[in-house]
Amino acid sequence: MKTDSSQNTMATRLAEQIRTRIAEEQLPAGHVFMTEGQLAEEYQVSRTIVREAVSRLRALGILDGKQRKGLVVRRPDLVQLLSESLPLLTVSSHERDELKLLRYVLEIGAIELAVKNATESQMDQLDALVAEMQSCLEDQEWERSVELDLAFHSLVLEMTGSKYVAGMQQILAEYFHSLPEIDRLDSGRSARIVWEHAELASAIRRQDREHARVLIRQQFEDLI
To answer: For this UniProt entry, which segments traverse the membrane (predicted)?
Structure first.
């Protein structure tokens, strides 16, 4: 009789074999793969092992079940996977530090693409966000200032033209803003942030990559 450990190992191996097969055969999304019974027969494993392996691949968005057809190939949504995984990472300070580093790399690495690809409409939106941030500073609307900061950086990442970069940044930013220990803004810090965002918007409009890099580093240096 197989132990739980050996079943887990066999399920892991089978899941990897299926994933490799899908990749090597370049099976498109929507392709009907095979049934669980066919998998059990072809790979000479029990239905229990097959169900566990398939369950893992379904959780990753690689396979899905279709009634009366069997298993269907899907393309995983990387942004959705990150979004669903983040709540599990709140228990470890080390993992939160890793996520901070990931966000830092995304923000710093993306700024050149943002400067290069920003449209006139997007730059106008940045200016409008900065103007609203200034208004919030004058009215001491600190919570709204945090929301505008998130919207500003989300827009900067959209300027890269990459849905993965923009999507992952949005999820990470919302995650850190949701943490109970996040520092809230006061008037002095908020004024500095408004100035930095105004300067960054101006640098993007002028296509001044060097100044934009300096400013984005200043804004996120506390993440590392």
So the answer is: none
Question: Is the whole-model pTM more than 0.85?
Answer: no
18 contacts 36 by C-beta, under 8 angstroms: no
Domains of the chain (ranges, CATH numbers): 4-76 (1.10.10.10), 80-223 (1.20.120.530)
φ/ψ of 65, rounded to 5, equals -95, 140
Q: Which of 1-15 are b and which e, b meaning 16 or more Cβ less than 10 Å from the residue's Cβ? A: eeeeeebeebbeebb
7-62 tens-digit pLDDT: 788 999 999 999 999 999 999 999 999 899 999 999 999 999 999 999 999 988 89
Amino acid found at 207: Q
d(CA 156, CA 111): 8
